[in-house]
């Protein structure tokens, strides 16, 4: 197997996990990293081999995994958005962008789209290098850990919760499920607060809902 063939395998989760490295494509994305990549490939042949785009943009960089432990995440930020069952990589990437914009961290539960999926990485627009992110978490265990660390766990609900402007002050974990399934009852029960975004639509896209809640929480929690 050539070195290029080995790097191409990083397009698949199994090999990313084995190597603990991921691919980032495009000049604007690559330059957002605070540290230089392990490899930077600019040759058109190599870029075509590694790209997941129909029209490769290049360059393609190889970076080591960036995620942090849940304990480190809770020490790093007073505002965290926890995604449960959000399987669309574009939505997950967009939430990471919003978290970066509003000074929050991100927790990804098991069953959520892979952080290092090339589609997720691309959708972060470089925020993957700035927002602290913990992944492959057990939702209930993370909420329990958060409460023990002084956080208030909040469940985003389509109805029945307080409006976003009434979010409590202090350290918050905003728990958001997928638009279709929402949050399971055991997760809702593990949250001491519930919040509902007033809307004429029956439901909101997970990334839209998370972004609204992050903005409202940032106004109350952060200086």
Structural class: alpha/beta
Low-confidence stretches: none
The termini sit apart by 53 Å
Radius of gyration over alpha carbons?
A: 18 Å
Helix content: 25-40%
The CATH topology of the largest domain is given as: Alpha/beta knot
Strand-residue proportion = 15-25%
Any idea how many domains?
Answer: 2
CATH architecture of the largest domain: 3-Layer(aba) Sandwich
CATH class of the largest domain: Alpha Beta
Number of strands: 9
Commentary on this structure:
This protein has 223 residues and is an alpha/beta fold. It folds into two domains: 62 residues, Ribosomal protein L30/S12 (60s Ribosomal Protein L30, Chain: A, 2-Layer Sandwich), CATH 3.30.1330.30; 152 residues, SPOUT methyltransferase, trefoil knot domain (Alpha/beta knot, 3-Layer(aba) Sandwich), CATH 3.40.1280.10. It contains ten helices and nine strands. A six-stranded parallel beta sheet has the order 6-5-4-8-7-9, with helices on both faces. Helix 6 links the parallel strand 4 and strand 5. Helix 6 runs parallel beside helix 10. The longest helix has 16 residues. It is elongated, with a radius of gyration of 18 Å. The mean pLDDT is 94.
Topology (SSEs and partners):
Blueprint: H1 3-8, H2 13-19, E1 21-25, H3 27-30, E2 39-41, H4 44-50, E3 60-64, H5 70-76, E4 79-84, H6 89-101, E5 105-109, H7 118-123, E6 133-137, H8 139-148, E7 152-156, E8 172-177, H9 185-189, E9 193-195, H10 206-221
Parallel strand pairs: 4-5, 4-8, 5-6, 7-8, 7-9
Antiparallel strand pairs: 1-3, 2-3
